[in-house]
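Preliminary data (for renewal application), zinc ion complex.
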Amino acid sequence: MPMFVDTSPPGQCIFCRLVAGEIPSAKVYEDALTIAFMDIGQVTPGHVLVATKRHAATLLDTTPEEAATLMQTARRVALAVRTAFDPPGLTLLQANGALGGQTVAHVHLHVVPRHEDDGITFTWPRQEPPAAVLAGYAERLRAAL
Ligand code: 5GP
Ligand code: ZN
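Predicted structure:
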């Protein structure tokens, strides 16, 4: 269970207030569509959040331009993290919905510098269904595109 969940209504959420300058943040970068700032939780030193400026709850609520710019900004930030912190690894994380691990319902992407024994764990219950099952899943998705 996440330790903290922001239940503010859209437009008054923590990140909307941060974008509006109503609450302080350690800002790294901004452009017309996105903003990057230090995560208050700093899982490792240099942990940055990249968020849309407009309130969109999840990735599924973004425009194609916002989604593309989120990743472009994440890439810029990742290059800066490499220059400034030089971590041996880097993980991007983007959570959607409470069950997806999202605690602030305003779309954002984590840029997390990674180090040996940094305490971050991610369980991934790998399964290997038969090829026919994979083909069925792909068919459902192609029909949905
Ligand atoms: P999520 O769990 O939704 O993927 O990530 C939300 C992140 O927002 C958490 O890592 C948390 O530390 C960060 N966060 C929550 N409130 C604030 C805040 O007021 N300022 C900043 N800079 N980060 C915040
Ligand atoms: Zn918001």
